[in-house]
Amino acid sequence: MDHDAIVRDSFARQAVMGLIGASITRVERGRVEIELPFRRDLTQQDGYFHAGIVSTIADSAGGYAAYSMMPEGSSVLTVEYKLNLIAPADGTRLTATGSVIKSGRTLSVCELRVTVLDGGEAKLCAVGMQTVFCLRR
Amino acid sequence: MDHDAIVRDSFARQAVMGLIGASITRVERGRVEIELPFRRDLTQQDGYFHAGIVSTIADSAGGYAAYSMMPEGSSVLTVEYKLNLIAPADGTRLTATGSVIKSGRTLSVCELRVTVLDGGEAKLCAVGMQTVFCLRR
Amino acid sequence: MDHDAIVRDSFARQAVMGLIGASITRVERGRVEIELPFRRDLTQQDGYFHAGIVSTIADSAGGYAAYSMMPEGSSVLTVEYKLNLIAPADGTRLTATGSVIKSGRTLSVCELRVTVLDGGEAKLCAVGMQTVFCLRR
Amino acid sequence: MDHDAIVRDSFARQAVMGLIGASITRVERGRVEIELPFRRDLTQQDGYFHAGIVSTIADSAGGYAAYSMMPEGSSVLTVEYKLNLIAPADGTRLTATGSVIKSGRTLSVCELRVTVLDGGEAKLCAVGMQTVFCLRR
Fold first, then answer.
1. Among positive and negative, which fits the CA dihedral B42, B46, B52, B57?
2. How far is the alpha carbon of D83 from chain A, nearest alpha carbon, in Å?
3. Segment D99-136, tens digit of pLDDT
4. How does DSSP assign B22-33, residue by residue?
5. Which of A36, A46, A136, C110 is the most buried (most CB within 10 A)?
6. Secondary structure element (H or E) that encloses residue D55, with its range
7. pLDDT in tens, C54-86
8. What angle do CA C50, C52, C54 make, to 5 degrees?
C-alpha cells in the first residue's frame, strides 16, 4: 500500500483545500504536514488567520496522519478535536502538522501543531489533540 | 451599548465569512447564530461540509456570543475550543449557535451547537465547548 | 433489561467511589447523577474540592449515562473528556450529572455538569463533554 | 525564588494527594512529575485506576508545571483540561508529567502525559492538554 499516494489523492478531493489555497507538503507514515499561505480573505476581524481556518488545516493534517496508518480501503472520520490558540495567527504562512500518538483498530489519537511564519521565524500558534475513527470496508 | 450592532460590525470585518458565504442570522445578549449554505467548495473528501468549516462558524458564533456580553471597547480572542462531530455534516445548510454558559471578567465559557439541514430536518451534527478571552482597552 | 440495577451494580464495583464517599443518587435512561459530600481530604491547596475529584464523579456520571443506553452485556470505556472549571468547587456537596447527547453503536457523547452546594444554593462549577466507547461482548 | 520548594510546599497542602497516596517526584522549571502506586481503592469497575484518579495527578502535574514558571506570590487555577485515555490504566504505578508549552502573563498551556508501569514497562495510558490561570497578588 502506497500511503503517500492514497493520502494525497484523498486530500485532492477535499474541495475546501482548493478554496483556501492549502497544499499538502509532507506525508510520512503517522505524520502529515499542510501549508497555507496568507490571504486577506482567510482572516478574522483583526486581520489574522481565522481560528477556523487554523482548525481546518490542523484537522486535515491529523486526520491524514491517522489515515496513513490505516489498512487499505479504510475511511477516516474525525470524532472530536480540541485546539488551544496560544498566539495570534499573524504571519505570511501557516504550517499544520498532525502526528499519531496512538493508532488503534477503531480509534486513533493525534497531536496537532500549527506554526505561523512571522518575519522568517516559525512561531507556534496552536496546539491540539484529535480523536479519529477508522471505518473499515 | 448596542451589542447587536457591535457584533454585526465585527462579523462584517471577518473576511473569511465572505469567502465561505456565512451570515449572522441572530444576535441576542449571550447567544449568536450563524448560517452557512452548502457549497461544493466547502467539502471534505466525501462531499460533506469539512469539519474545519463547521468549526469556523461554531467558533465565531461562540466568540460573538461572549463578545455580546463584554464591556464596550473590549476585544475577544478564542483561548481554546473542543468540538465533537457527532454526525456527518451532510445537508443543504449549517446553523451554528454559540451560547454563553459563564461570562467572567477575563474568561467566558460558551456552549457550541451546529445543526445541518437535511431534507427539511435540522439534525445536530456537532457539539462543543469554548473558552474566550476578553481583552479590555 | 433493568438499566437502573445494572448501572448501580457497576457503580458499586468502582472502589474509588467508596474511598471518596460518592453515591449514585439518580439513574434514568441517558442521565445519571452522582453526589459527593465535602471532606477535607478531597481538597486542593486552597481547601476546595480538587479538580480531579470533580472529574472523577463527572466522568462516572457521564460513563453511566451512556452505559444506561447500551445493549445488555456491553462494557463502557471513556475515550476522552474535557472539563471547564468555571467556578471554585467551594461548598458542602458536589452533584455531577451526565446526560447523553448522542448514543451511537460504538461511540456516545455526553454532556457533563457539576454543581457545588454553597450556602443552600447549587452553583454550577464545572461543565464538560465526554466521548464514551461501547465494547460489546 | 526557589520554585522547587514553593511547588512542593503547595503540593503538600493538596490533602487529596495524601488520600490517594500520590507523591511529587520531580520538579523542574516548566515540568513536574507525580507518581501514584496502585491501590485497590483507586479503581473503576474492571480493577484499573479510575480515569478520575488519572486526571487528578495529571491535573496537578500540569498545574504545578505552570506554577513553577509564575512570579512569586501567584496562585494557580485550572481553567480547563482535556484528557484522552488511550490505554487501560492497568498496572502497578502511574506517573503523570505536566510540561509547559506556553507560559503567558495570564494563561499557560500544558501538555499532560500519564504512563502506567505494567510488568516493568512504562506504557502511555493518557495524553492531555490543560489551560491554567495565573492569579497575581
1. positive
2. 9
3. 999 999 999 999 999 999 999 999 999 999 999 999 98
4. -EEEEEETTEEE
5. C110
6. helix D51-67
7. 999 999 999 999 999 999 899 999 999 999 999
8. 75
CA–CA dist D89, D126 (Å, integer): 8
Distance CA A114, CA D10 (A): 34
CB within 8 Å: A127 and D101? yes
A20 exposure class (CB count in 10 Å sphere: 0-12, 13-18, 19+): buried
In chain B (137 residues long), the average pLDDT of successive 10-residue segments reads: 89 98 98 98 97 98 97 94 98 98 97 96 98 91
How much is the ipTM here? 0.96
Q: Which set of grid coordinates corresponds to residue D101?
A: 508549552
Contacts of B128 in chain C (CB under 8 A): 129
What are the Cα distances from residue C67, in Å, to C106, D44, D54? 11, 14, 21
Q: Which residue has the cell 484522552?
A: D84
Give the per-residue pLDDT at D123: 98
Contact by Cβ (8 Å): D65, D33: no
Q: How many of the other CB atoms lie within 10 Å of CB of B123? A: 16
One-letter amino acid for residue A98 of the chain: G
The DSSP-derived string for C92-109 is: SEEEEEEEEEEE-SSEEE
CB B107: neighbour CB atoms within 10 A?
21
Instruction: For residue A61, give the nearest of A116, A10, A102 by alpha carbon.
Output: A10
* The model's pTM: 0.97
Q: Which residue of C has its CA nearest to A132?
A: C79
Asked whether B29 and B70 are in contact (CB, 8 A), the reply is no
CB contact under 8 A, B52 and A16: yes
Give every CB contact of residue A111 below 8 A, 6+ residues apart in sequence: A62, A98, A99, A101, A127, A128, A129, A130, D127
CB-CB under 8 Å, C80 with A131: yes
